[in-house]
Write a structure and sequence with these properties.
Thiol Ester Dehydrase, Chain A; 16% helix
Length: 251
């Protein structure tokens, strides 16, 4: 079995923004689709795990965009399982164009949840072996994420969890959290370009009917590369649980 899975996509109009560029959220949906297809081929897909009362859950995601493809562009998404970091399964992604131009790279980590006990388990003990590929698409240790600073102002916007936001597990789809985060930013940021980096730590789940608060704050960090960085936090309005932390970078 080839450890690298390739999947082709044509950028559709409904996946594009007002400039004709692929939306960041649409790109994340490509990731989810390709990862699921590859997992199915390896015998560790969603249905395989659900039959054993387990499920994959995305824990961390770090995306770096070099350039967004546009409407009607044909792209190839390569993905592979890189290895294990304690109980985390590391998966890599690389998006390229027809002339082999690299559009975006990403690294992610997944955990396996026991659906009955609602607790993470060591997936290596319950899954059959599958081929790994040593290459990294994006070098990142996927360590702790910074949180908003209490002494600085932030923008805030409320959202109600809709039926359309849910996935097969009846929880909010991963890309929806990113969409909530992006919609709290100043309007001028999204008019001319999309985010060049998105770094996400998923910390808790939410479901239909819940109300959430999405917050964003300008992040002036000299250690970061050039760009305008923002920190984001999404919390449950019902019980104040922190659901997600994010960082985004804009040109």
């Amino acid at each position: 079995m080839n450890p690298i899975h390739s999947q082709r996509y044509k950028v559709r109009s409904y996946e594009s923004d007002s400039r004709g560029a692929l939306k960041a959220v649409s790109l994340l949906n490509y990731f989810e689709d390709a990862a699921g297809e590859h997992a199915n081929l390896l015998g560790v897909g969603g249905r395989d795990l659900m039959a054993k009362k387990f499920s994959w859950v995305l824990s961390r995601l770090h995306l770096k965009v070099i350039r967004y493809p546009h409407w009607e562009d044909r792209v190839t998404l390569r993905t592979w399982a890189h290895g294990w970091k304690k109980i985390f399964a590391i998966r890599e992604f690389e998006l390229s164009g027809e002339n082999s131009e690299i559009f975006a790279v990403a690294t992610t980590s997944f955990i396996t949840i026991d659906l009955e006990q609602k607790k993470p388990v060591n997936a290596e003990t319950i899954l059959s072996e599958f081929p790994l590929h040593a290459e990294r698409a994006l070098q990142d240790s996927l360590g702790p994420m910074p949180k908003l600073k209490a002494d600085l102002p932030y923008l805030e916007k409320p959202f109600l969890v809709r039926l359309n936001d849910l996935d097969l597990n009846q929880h909010v789809n991963n890309a929806v959290y990113v969409q909530w985060a992006l919609e709290t930013l100043p309007d001028e940021l999204g008019k001319d370009f999309g985010p060049m980096e998105i770094d996400v730590a998923f910390r808790a789940e939410t479901t239909f009917g819940d109300r959430v608060l999405s917050r964003s704050q300008y992040h002036d960090d000299e250690e970061n590369e050039k760009g305008n960085w923002f920190l984001h936090q999404i919390i449950s309005e019902n019980d104040n649980r922190e659901l997600t932390r994010l960082r985004t970078c804009w040109p």
